[in-house]
Design a protein that fits this description.
The complex is a heterodimer of chains A (240) and B (475). Chain A has 6 helices and 10 strands. Chain A has helices at residues 21-27, 79-95, 110-117, 153-162, 197-201, 222-232, and strands spanning 3-8, 11-16, 51-54, 60-62, 73-75, 134-135, 141-144, 167-170, 177-180, 207-209. Chain A is an alpha+beta fold and 240 residues long. Among the domains of chain B are: 50-212 and 349-369 and 379-396, Orthogonal Bundle (Cytochrome-c3 Hydrogenase, chain B), CATH 1.10.645; 216-326, no CATH class. A 4-stranded mixed sheet of chain B has the order 2-1-14-15. In chain B, strands 7-6-5-10 form a 4-stranded mixed sheet. In chain B, strands 11-12-13 form a 3-stranded antiparallel sheet. In chain B, a hairpin with a 5-residue loop joins strand 12 (380-388) and strand 13 (394-400). In chain B, helix 11 (306-316) runs antiparallel to helix 12 (331-350). The longest helix of chain B is centred in the first third of the chain and has 33 residues, at 87-119. Chain B starts with 16 loop residues before the first strand and ends with a strand. Mean pLDDT of chain B is 88; it is low at 1-12 and 449-457. Classes of the chains: A alpha+beta (240), B alpha+beta (475). The A-B interface holds A 101-102, 104, 133-134, 136-137, 142, 187, 210-216 and B 48-50, 52-53, 55-57, 60, 164, 166, 169, 174, 363, 391-393.
């Protein structure tokens, strides 16, 4: 496989063809904020937080899906990018009902941490206060659509790792939402194995365990790397 | 002829209010009203949330007494789970309630009311506050601040921080108490006990100093309502409801607090967001009642701890020929008796080996679609009532808050003080402050009771018989 040479923020790097800018940046500790990206799941470039600038291209590109190219000149931390990242988090905050003070993942929330990271001090867009629902029909878990940022991690982990594909996305634009099965109550979804992977990968307090209270839910996501590695190495496949 | 005087905000109360004083054609005070003009609406926006989240959400109602809300909310949750909580969890919840009493009562007396008492009702408004008090008597103010700190530190030890602690949960509490924390609490003794006694001694001198004010500071007949223990003792966490009349007769006893809606109705008036609860058998407004320290110390048969019981007996002598103390000024006295009780009781709990148990949380599914929690908040009996679906999602909630239950009594107090002190349509600064101080006897928390934002302006309107505003003061 060909090796590509390029620069990120003025530093020269080389990587295998097919690797993404985000992969290279992570390997070399170059911070690029992400939200929908989670190592072990496919990349969808949906949240637009990992946007980067590539010289010669007037579009901003998501680092998680942009592959390295020979001679590429990449910038990850320009004033323009910082502004757009703040704007993205502000828009996410204004279109949902995110009330950190009473949220189950307060202090353990990726959205909250990102807001701190990008330096969001106020949301200048009017809050939409959409009327969204909470589905507590599952025996062990709850989905609160008020806190959903539509990162689709739950959809991908259920499909790609668990293989159940309970979750999907329905609707368009502002009406877009995560649905169970064919938009039925979670408790009625026969395909759900109650494995809880979706709950653990959810970056916000949207998916949580029933019975937890404010700031009590901490999500351990290490399981995903372990599962994906084991699968890649066929650790559980015994051939005669 | 007409003039507007502005006083803003109303000082040293929790919440947002105004007072209107209505005059008849001869310029005498005909009526006075205490208006609470903010609305917060927790009852509505809790709908659709899970019962497990409710202690965390309702603790946000108030920054002064969040513990009362989350404990009462957790009790309503226990009822919905139909669960008996572990013994240690109950002891810890009791400890939390007492710590809440200490910090809130200390705040009410030292920070909010004692500037009036020590500096005088007519002192300069810029001085009538905790800073003025620090200048006047540094040691007294410092002791008051430290006493409040004692309560706050216990709250922080248990819940990790001082306000809005998401600590009590349906089924128990989140963390046990550690031995080292217990010892830290005990290290505050005897300082805190001495401060409580100092407060009581100071208040007794105030009783002599304010002979002119006291007789008209909400001195009227009403019912008294509160929880008492199974044995008739002063109660703060559990127990049954007792209702006493102004002569000290117990007119209802051992009422199940979970059936509060059978005994109390809520009336509304167009001029305030604060509802008017009343005792149903007597109707509105005749069945109005008082809750809080004055009611609790009046209705209980005894107090379990020795020093507080000694004070309770002295307090009862103020009732004269009656068995109940009817003057609202003595809320302060009752509050300090409770403060002393809370300090003594915390010490007693610290010596209970059961307080250090590690099993503090029971878990269960939804077993009942309706649940009520009741406890004694610093300001009076607090009820949280939730209706849920089979998944634990709130369909409806009703919060009956202590301050609301004192609403009619606060209105009467304002009227009585206005009638006593306003002469010839003239409001002086000192009179205004006396009217405010009447409200402060009840230590109202308007942010709690209306679910209103916690700004604190007080507006006083002087209105003549044709509804013209003669004077308007905003602070």
């Amino acid at each position: 496989m060909a090796v590509k040479t390029f620069t990120i923020d003025g530093q020269q790097f080389s990587a295998q063809e097919g690797e993404t800018i985000l992969q290279v940046a992570r390997e070399h500790n170059i911070p690029i904020p992400t939200l929908c990206f989670l190592e072990g799941l496919s990349e969808v470039g949906a949240c637009r937080l990992c946007l980067i600038q590539v010289e010669g291209n007037n579009k901003l590109l998501p680092a998680c899906t942009t592959k390295v190219e020979e001679g590429m000149v990449v910038h990850t931390n320009t004033e323009k990018l910082k502004k757009y990242r703040r704007m993205t988090i502000a828009l996410l905050a204004s279109e949902g009902n995110h009330v950190c003070a009473v949220c189950v993942v307060n202090n353990h929330c990726e959205l909250q941490n990102l807001a701190y990271e990008v330096g969001l001090v106020r949301v200048r867009y009017p809050y939409l206060f959409p009327k969204k629902e909470l589905d507590a029909t599952h025996k062990r878990f709850v989905i609160d659509h008020n806190r959903c940022v539509l990162c689709t991690r739950c959809v991908r982990v259920c499909d790609e790792v668990e293989g159940a594909h309970v979750w999907d996305v329905a609707g368009r634009g502002i009406d877009c939402k995560i649905v169970t099965g064919l938009d039925e109550p979670w408790g009625d979804a026969e395909t759900c194995t109650s494995c809880g992977k979706c709950v653990l990968v959810c970056p916000t307090g949207t998916l949580f365990e029933k019975g937890v209270t404010v700031a009590e839910m901490e999500k351990q996501q290490d399981f995903l790397k372990f599962l994906v590695n084991a699968r890649k190495k066929r650790e559980w496949v015994y051939e005669e | 002829m007409s003039e507007t005087i502005t006083i803003s905000p109303v000082t040293r109360i929790e919440g947002h209010a105004k007072i209107t004083i209505h005059l008849n054609s001869s310029g005498e005070v005909e009526d006075a009203r205490f208006h609470v003009n903010e609305f917060r609406g927790f009852e509505k926006f809790c709908e659709g949330r899970l019962v497990w989240e409710m202690p965390g959400i309702t603790s946000r109602i108030c920054g002064i007494c969040p513990a009362s809300h989350f404990i009462t909310s957790a009790k309503a949750g226990d009822d919905i789970l139909s669960i008996g909580i572990p013994e240690t969890a109950e002891k810890l919840r009791r400890l939390m309630t007492l710590a809440q009493w200490v910090q809130s009562h200390a705040l009410s007396f030292f920070h909010l009311s004692s500037p009036d008492f020590l500096l005088g009702f007519d002192a300069h408004p810029a001085k009538r506050n905790i800073f003025g008090l620090l200048e006047f008597d540094k040691e007294f103010a410092r002791r008051g601040i430290r006493l409040r700190k004692f309560g706050q530190e216990i709250i922080e030890m248990l819940g990790g921080r001082r306000i809005h602690v998401p600590w009590a949960v349906a089924g128990g509490v989140r963390q046990p108490l550690e031995e080292i924390e217990k010892n830290q609490i005990l290290s505050w003794y005897p300082e805190v006990k001495e401060t409580a006694k100092l407060a009581l001694d100071t208040l007794k001198t105030i009783h002599i100093k304010f002979q002119r004010e006291i007789p008209s500071f909400g001195n009227f007949h009403s019912l008294f309502v509160g929880l008492v223990g199974e044995n008739g003792a002063l109660e703060y966490y559990d127990g049954n409801l007792r209702i006493m009349d102004s002569a000290g007769n117990i007119i209802a006893d051992k009422l199940d607090p979970k059936k509060y809606f059978n005994y109390f109705g809520e009336a509304t008036e167009s001029w305030t967001y604060l509802k008017f609860p009343f005792y149903k058998p007597l109707g509105y407004p005749k069945g109005f009642y008082r809750v809080g320290p004055l009611a609790r110390v009046n209705i209980c048969d005894f107090i379990e701890t020795p020093l507080a019981e000694q004070e309770r007996k002295l307090f009862k002598t103020l009732a004269g020929s009656s068995e109940a103390v009817n003057n609202s000024f003595y809320y302060h006295y009752a509050r300090l008796i409770e403060l002393l009780f809370a300090i003594e009781k915390i010490e007693e709990l610290m010596h209970d080996p059961g307080i250090l148990g590690k099993h503090v949380r029971a878990k269960a599914e939804i077993n009942s679609l309706e649940g009520v929690g009741a406890s004694e908040a610093p300001r009076g009996t607090l009820f949280h009532h939730y209706w849920v679906d089979e998944n634990g999602v709130l369909k409806k909630s009703n919060l009956l808050i202590a301050t609301a239950q004192n609403n009619i009594a606060m209105n009467r107090t304002v009227r009585q003080i206005a009638m006593q002190f306003i002469e010839r349509k003239k409001i002086t600064e000192g009179i205004l402050n006396r009217i405010e101080a009447g409200i402060r006897c009840f230590d109202p928390c308007l942010s709690c009771s209306t679910h209103a934002m916690g700004k604190m302006p007080l507006e006083i309107l002087l209105i003549d018989e044709n509804n013209n505003i003669i004077e308007r003061k905003l602070r």
